[in-house]
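Input chain follows. Return structure tokens only.
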Amino acid sequence: MIHMNQLKLPLEQVMASVPAGLLKKGVIGEQELELVRKKAAKCLRLKGEQITELTILKKSLDARRKQQIQCIYQIEFSCPEERKVLRRYGKKDVWWKAAGNGCADRAQVPGGTCSGRGESKCRPVVVGFGPAGMFAALELARAGRMPIVLERGQDVDSRQKTVSRFWEGGVLDEECNVQFGEGGAGTFSDGKLNTLVKDASGRNRKVLETFVFFGAPSEILYLQKPHIGTDRLKTVVKAIRKEIISLGGEIFFGTKLTDFRVEDGSLRAVRFVREGKEAEIPCRQMLLAMGHSARDTFLLLKERGVLMEQKAFAVGVRLEHPQEMIGQLRYGDFYKKLPAAEYKLTAQTEKKRGVYSFCMCPGGYVVNASSEKGMLAVNGMSDYGRDGKNANSAIVVTVSPQDFGGNDVLAGMEYQRKLEKAAYRQADGLIPVQLFGDFRQNRKSSTFGGFSCQMKGDYAFGNLKEVLPEAISEAVGEGIALFGKKLCGYDREDAILSGVESRTSSPVRVVRDDALQANIRGIYPCGEGAGYAGGITSAAMDGIRVAEQIVKQAQKV
């Protein structure tokens, strides 16, 4: 196989050949595939028909020059006399790789080998059914380990009804909400699948292929910043759940871990509450994928002597702009014909604070993502079509133990709670919103400017400077102003802020050794809540990694 890393086509050439509907969705059809084939053949001085088994691994847009936007493709293909062709080409952006060293074929995804169902009396228990727990349970089920999953929230359909009632009426269910339930927090956050984790193991590709097999759009396999969409994720997570159950796994919703029993430094049983009744089951392997908002679980781990350490995270606000404005800034006159424009911005303030955009949602909504009564946190989400009027992104500032201080390992968690309580008080339990111009002037807003907010959950005007610590609000304001120099108008006076954005990642890391276990043997921390991931894909990858380790150890017994 030949791997080509930087094949470029002018956007206008692609637009002239590709149906508008496919271009708008980012979907690669036969016409675009043929353009890529011809360009690759031309680069390598081949005939088009000599290029076979062509696969587009990644597609991105280079929009640095608005009138000369380039489509950039990363591809693999076969051709006659491959090594000779490469020597003749002589450039470093193309190389040869042995066939079979790539990612697994989609047809191989649902299989997996069975190492014997019921070979161990104590089945592994997975706590949490977000990305880490879901993919870990799937991996364990395919290996014949018949996992038991405990998820405090409800199945995705029941969860959607509960969350909708909260957004419409403000009645919070602390066990089933935007943070807890089937699919985890990612179910209500656009389903963004981009990750900065290097993929030497192939787990990233495996996650994407698994999503596609269970109903996600196929373009997530090659788009530079893939996403599924909150609306489509619901179908995908249900399909994965059914697969786990069909392989002998069991999934218990409305079931909350309350304790675990330890003997001689090793796990012996887990305790939980389901339908108001307490129960205990024997357990030698507990995969802890509780998510970054399971604060009561963090407290339990601390009480039971599980080693944890403080971890840096980020806090700030959500910021909304008209999606049309972002499209024009990114793609110029082409924006109406391309997928909803995204951005990623970073800056450093005069006081050396890092400020950056996070979890950017094109054509999306700001959502009330609270999970504890008397506290308020926001997040962002988009549906698959990303066709909402506004773009929103978190604008956050990194905070470290120097900011939240103290010797308590959960000081960062309490710092989050303090901000969320202030946000809740600011607008009497509604999402506090404020125009950027008023934020800079430290005054409460009273009306919108040229556009209105797009939100899931009720909102009211407030003053976010009274929510954030002075150092954070100062950095947010300076950062947005600096971003305005990169995207003209980004710092417009009527840009809409809301807050508080406090759940960017876990405030702790549960310490694990080379065998991926905590100091209590048999406890396997994983995913975002345990401090080993930063999004859907990386959490799923970590879940697979830990499940592989559990299977490997079981095979040694």
